[in-house]
Design brief:
By secondary structure, the protein is mainly β. The protein is built from 1 helix and 7 strands.
């Protein structure tokens, strides 16, 4: 069954936080939002999926050093406002280069065998 889950990022007040979240393998992130002063990620998940993967994220405040996101390709998810708009956090997923390379290799192989 597919449903929407909320994942809370509790260490959002730590500057340049790099939380890791376990999600079902094919979870699709919908949006990020602040709920009761906690940064949250909403995702469509398949509750029948048995395999979870660890996904890496970065919470970067406005003015933060983007070079801190060196452990993957940053994919922007959205911005949340915390602490009565005193803190704006830009949330990125850090996609591993190896995963991208494997997907490209798989696509290349598929093209070779499709003739």
């Amino acid at each position: 069954m597919e449903t929407i889950y909320k994942y809370e990022l509790h260490n959002a007040f730590k500057v340049d936080a790099f939380p890791k979240i376990s999600m079902p393998k094919d979870a699709q992130i919908l949006k990020v939002e602040s709920v009761r002063n906690i940064a949250c990620i909403y995702a469509v998940v398949n509750t029948d999926e048995q395999q979870n993967v660890i996904r890496d994220f970065c919470l970067l405040p406005t003015g933060g050093d983007m070079s801190a996101m060196k452990d993957g390709t940053p994919v922007y998810l959205g911005t949340v406002s915390l602490n009565n708009d005193l803190l704006m956090l830009h949330i990125f997923e850090l996609v591993k280069e190896l995963e991208n390379d494997n997907q490209e290799n798989h696509q290349d192989n598929t093209e070779l065998f499709s003739e």
